[in-house]
Amino acid sequence: MRRLARLQLLPLQLALLLAVGSPEAPVSAPRSLAWGPGLQAAVVLPVRYFYLQAVNSEGQNLTCSPPGETLFKVVVKSLSPKELVRIHVPKPLDRNDGTFLVRYRMYETVNEGLKIEILYGNEHVAQSPYILKGPVYHEYCECPEQDPQAWQRTLSCPTKEPQIEEDFASFPNINLLQMLNEVPKRFGDERGAVVHYTILNNHIYRRSLGKYTDFKMFSDEILLSLARKVLLPDLEFYVNLGDWPLEHRKASDIPGPIPIISWCGSLDSRDVILPTYDVTHSTLEAMRGVTNDLLSIQGNTGPSWINKTEKAFFRGRDSREERLQLVQLSKENPQLLDAGITGYFFFQEKEKELGKAKLMGFFDFFKYKYQVNVDGTVAAYRYPYLMLGDSLVLKQDSPYYEHFYVALRPWKHYVPIKRNLSDLLEKIKWAKENDEEAKKIAKEGQLTARDLLQPHRLYCYYYRVLQKYAERQSSKPEIRDGMEHVPQPDDNTSICRCHRKRSSREEL
Question: Phi and psi for 272 in degrees, rounded to 5?
Fold first, then answer.
C-alpha cells in the first residue's frame, strides 16, 4: 500500500513511465509479440482477432500502456491485387496492461490469401508481415470443414469442458421417442418457449412449441454459423428459449430427467447449458450490429485502477427485489455505493420512492472500482462483460449459473456477497481497506475471463455440447411433422467459393 500511496502523489504520465520502464527502453517492434487465431487462415470467425504484447528494447514485457498515442498499426489486405475485398480493420484496442487486441471483419472470401502487416511506428512487429495462404473464408461463406476433429484442433478447443461433463452425467442414453412424446406435453403449452430442432446432413430444421419462441433467431443464427464452418453431427434436440431452466426431475426420479438445452442452469435443475444468447449474439454481430461484445469490452475498461472512483456501482432493471434493496442501500450509503434502477416493470409501485436512474453507456460502468453483480430473473447476463473489465466484481450468491461459472472461485476471481446483500457494505469496506488484494482478485478474474470467453472458445463449447448429445442418442434423428428448414442467409453481395470437397452422409 505504501508504494501505491506514493504513486498517487505523482502526475499520471510519470506514473506510467515508472510502470513501463525508462524512456531509454522504449517499445521495440521486433521484440514485441503477436499471436492468436486471427493470424491463422483456417480459423473462420465472425470477427477475426489476435493479440499484441508490447516489449521494450531490454526484452521486458510492458505491463501498462506505452506513454503517448498508441503507435501500433495494422493493415489487412488481399495478397492478390486482382482480388478487391472489403475488410474492416479498426484501431487496435489498448487493454491497459501492455497488450493490445486487434480485430478485423471480412465481408468476402479471398482465394489467394491475406497479408497482415503489424507496425509500431514504421517498424514491423515480431514476424510481420504475416501471410495467410488462401482460401480465407468470411463468416457467411458456407464451406464446412468435413473433419470435425481437424476443425477442433485448428481452434485449439480444450479436450474437456467440466460443465459439459457434469451436465451429461444424468443422460447416458437419450431416448428421442420418449422426448418426442414428453416434451410437447410438459413444456410446449401456450406459455411455452421451446424449439424442437433436428440437424440432418448439416441442414437445420425446427418447429416451435409454445407461444414465446421469438428468441429462436438467436439459436438459429449460432447453429447456422456453426454449420457453415464444420460438419455437424446428426441430432434431434430441444432448446429452451425462456429465462428459467425447465427440467427439475432428479436422476433418481421415475421417469428420470430429460436433456433440455438452456442458456442458464440452476442448482435444482438438470438442463444442459449453452453460452447465453447474449454473449453468443454479441460474438456473431461484433463490429456490426452491437456495441458491447466480448472483444470490444476489453479495450474500454475505463481509467486505470488507481484513477477509478472508489465506490461500488450498479445500474439495471427492477427484475429482482434485491436490486431494490441495493438502491435503498445506495441512498443510505452514497459514499460507498452508487446504485440505480433504469427501468421499472416488476415493481412499478417503487419508482416514486426509489427514483429512476438515467441510462449509462456500459463502458462508463468501469469508471468505478467495484461492480455489484446481482441476479435478474435468473443469472445476470452482464457478468461475463463485468469480468472482462478492469474492476472488482462483488458477486451475489446465486443458485443460477452460466456455462463458465464452474471455473470460477470466490476470493480468487470475485468477492462473494450474500444473497440478501446483508454483507455488501462490509465487503465494499474490505475492498477499500485492502486495495492491493482487491486489485489482484480483479486482475485474476479478468485474465480468466479473457481465456474462457474468447469467441472461438464459444464455438468449441457449442460443438462439444452437440457432439456429446449426438453420441448419446439411442435412435436416428428425423425431420418431424411440422418442422421447417432453416436456410442459410443469402449473402449474394459477397464472393464465396468453397474449395473443400464435400461428402454427404447419405453416400456413406
Answer: -90, 130
Return d(Cα 420, Cα 418) in angstroms, integer: 5
Q: Going by C-beta distance under 8 Å and a sequence separation of 6 or more, which residues neighbour residue 472?
A: 168, 171, 172, 173, 174
274: left (phi over 0), alpha (psi -120 to 50) or beta: beta
Over the chain (508 residues), what is each successive 10-residue block's mean pLDDT?
33 36 70 98 97 96 85 95 93 96 96 97 96 96 96 96 96 96 90 94 95 91 97 98 94 91 96 96 92 94 96 96 96 98 94 93 96 96 96 98 97 98 98 98 98 97 98 97 94 78 51
What secondary structure does DSSP assign to 79-131, as a single string?
SSTT----EE-PPPEE-SSSEEEEEEEESS-BSSEEEEEEEETTEEPTTPSEE
Rounded to an integer, what distance in angstroms lies between the CA atom of residue 299 and that of residue 314?
A: 21
Q: Under a CB-based contact definition with an 8 Å cutoff, are residues 100 and 92 in contact? A: yes
Cβ atoms of 335 and 429 closer than 8 Å: no
Q: How far is the C-alpha of 404 from the C-alpha of 419, rounded, in Å?
A: 20
Residue among 388, 430, 380, 381 at smallest CA distance from 413? 388
Return the pLDDT at 502: 61
pTM here?
Answer: 0.92
DSSP 137: -
Nearest to 105, CA basis, from 131, 76, 78: 76
Residue with cell 446483508: 422
**Tally of CB atoms within 10 A around 247:** 21
Q: What is the CA radius of gyration of the chain?
A: 25
Is 170 within 8 Å of 251 (Cβ atoms)? yes
* Alpha-carbon span 403 to 461, nearest angstrom: 9
What is the spatial distance between Cα 350 and Cα 358, in angstroms, rounded to a whole number? 16
User: What are the Cα distances from residue 15, in Å, to 95, 100, 436, 499?
Assistant: 17, 20, 17, 53
Query: Is the CB of residue 79 less than 8 Å from the CB of residue 131?
Result: yes
**CA–CA separation, 408 and 211 (whole Å):** 36
How far apart (Å, rounded) are the C-alpha atoms in residues 138 and 77?
A: 13
Say if residue 415 is exposed, middle or buried (CB neighbours under 10 Å; 0-12, 13-18, 19+): buried
* Rounded distance between C-alpha atoms, residue 321 and residue 308, angstroms: 28
Query: How many helices (DSSP H) and strands (DSSP E) are in the chain?
Result: 13, 22
Q: Is the dihedral of CA 255, 258, 262, 267 positive or negative?
A: positive
Say how far apart CA 35 and CA 137 lie, in whole Å: 20
Residue 282: closest CA among 367, 171, 375, 362: 362
β-pairing, 48-53 vs 87-88, is unpaired
Q: Reduced to 3 states, what is the DSSP secondary structure of residue 366?
A: helix
